Amino acid sequence: MRKTEKQGKRTGVGAGKFCCGAILLILFWLAGAGSAQADETGTAVVDGWRYELHEDGTAMLAEIGQESEVIIPERIRYENRSYEVTELKKELCFGNKRIEKVEFPDSILRLPNDAFYQCRNLRQVRFPGKLKRIGARCFYQCFSLEEILLPDSVEEVGKDAFNLCIDVRRLHLSRALRSIGAEAFQGSSWITELELPARLETIGNNAFRYCFNLSRYYVESGSLYFTAVDGVLFNRDRTELVAYPAGKEEEEYQIPNGVRVISDTSMGFQDSIESNGVLKRLYVPNSVNEISDRVLFGQSVVLYGRNGSYIHRYATEHGLSFTAVSVGHIPIGSAASAVPREEPEAERQPDGEAVARDRDGEEEPAVPAKIVLKKGKKNRKKITPEHLEKDAAVTFRIRNKKIATVSGKGMITGKKKGKTKLIVRVRQNGENYRLVVKIIVK
User: Fold this and answer.
1) pLDDT for res 58
2) Which of 12-21, 136-145, 305-314, 346-355 has the lowest average pLDDT?
3) Which of 97, 113, 227, 282 is buried most, with the most CB atoms less than 10 Å from its CB?
């Protein structure tokens, strides 16, 4: 009996210890499981929307509900702690057809890529007052968007950010804007005039293409990068034609003398032809010696320039209509403009190219339009501009040294497959010439 009682007492004590231990283990497991879940997901659902929470007290909106009007709060509260909403998740509302209106709090400084991609019924957007950047394709194909009024804090608009927002009637660019990505506002066909801010430094290719009613560009005073002349956009020193407005209703246009480059963004020439067919005659001065591969003029416009000039060779290579005139540029509206005088037939060299002459009859420096060479190989002979005077000074520069290099004497070496351009500068008889050779490495 004593042994049995003793055993019973021991058994009772052991059972009690076991129960206490089991309860403690369960409590520890529950506490551990709860904290692991919070650490693993870091999410909270507030008012039906899902947020990702951060230790620094900020939150990212990750998922919304079924609302047509999306009013994003500046702060949320979860488990007795306040979080500031500072971010949106990439592709937050991708393809959402319910949204018609969205308002952002001022706590959001950046809108991510693809956030409202193809929200086709989105009509109104209130941007954050302190917004800095709008990501690529953020509002791509928001067909119903009526206006884009960027706060003056925005510094960058990404590639395709508002591409094909075809119903936009008002566009206001931020005064702090420094960069516009390629095709950022392409297809905003209702815009008629546009003022570019003084701080703007770069405009991507085709940023305002298919803006068929855009008739004039303006540039805010004080710009160090761009200027507008008669509604056409140029770089500050007027050596590059940056953009020709597609809605400019003139049958002829004279590119100012001194312009050297017609750049990738000058798509308005083609747009003007496609939209209203108004542009018929384009006068290109002898100073132009580079036209981007992406620039299209169309078959219905006639190019005017000097026989043997860069634009003459360009028109021949691309099958475009060309008429030779006696000077590099014709005053628009003059009698000479209406009926251009054709030059006598230019002299022909054995290679079939015309010899360009200046106004005094002297032959101007010339280089081949294109050179093709293999990777790791040099061109057969160095580049020597034709028609050089004895005192001529010549320099060479390759735009992309990863594709090819050039020596001080004009010998080119292919580095890797691709295309680049060789810039040849010549100074003779008090005149400066800038010649361009297309380099193709295979």
Assistant:
1) 96
2) 346-355
3) 282
272: pLDDT confidence band, cut at 50, 70 and 90? low
pTM, full prediction: 0.67
Query: Is there a domain that residue 86 lies in?
Result: yes
Reduce the DSSP state of residue 153 to 3 states and report it: coil
For residues 109 and 133, the answer to whether their CB atoms sit within 8 Å is yes
The CATH code of the domain that includes 415 is 2.60.40.1080
Please check whether residues 201 and 52 belong to one and the same domain. Answer: no
88 falls within a domain: yes
Q: What is the DSSP string of 386-438?
A: BS--TT-EEEEEES-TTTEEE-TTS-EEE-SSEEEEEEEEEEETTEEEEEEEE
Closest CA to 123 of 62, 63, 68: 68
Pairing verdict, β 232-235 and 240-243: antiparallel
Which of 132-136, 294-298, 347-351 has maximum average pLDDT?
132-136
**Rounded Cα gap, residues 250 and 246, in angstroms:** 10
Are 177 and 244 members of one domain? Answer: no
Range of the domain at 59: 46-189
Q: Tell me which residue of 205, 203, 210 sits closest to 219, measured CA to CA.
A: 203
Determine the 3-state secondary structure of 237 from DSSP: coil
Looking at 363, 398, 416, the residue that finishes a domain is 363
CA 205 to each of CA 8, 53, 135, 215, 271: distance values in angstroms, whole numbers, following the listed order: 90, 38, 17, 19, 14
Q: Pick the last residue of a domain from 189, 204, 223.
A: 189
* Number of domains the chain contains: 3
- Half-sphere exposure of residue 88, counting CA atoms within 13 Å on the CB side? 32
Sheet containing 43-46: which strands, arranged edge to edge? 43-46, 49-53, 58-63, 81-88, 75-78
The answer to whether residues 117 and 91 touch, using CB atoms and an 8 Å cutoff, is yes
| Statement to judge: residues 316 and 196 lie in one domain | yes
Residue 260 sits in the same domain as residue 167: no
- Alpha-carbon dihedral of residues 37, 107, 112, 67, nearest 10 degrees? 80
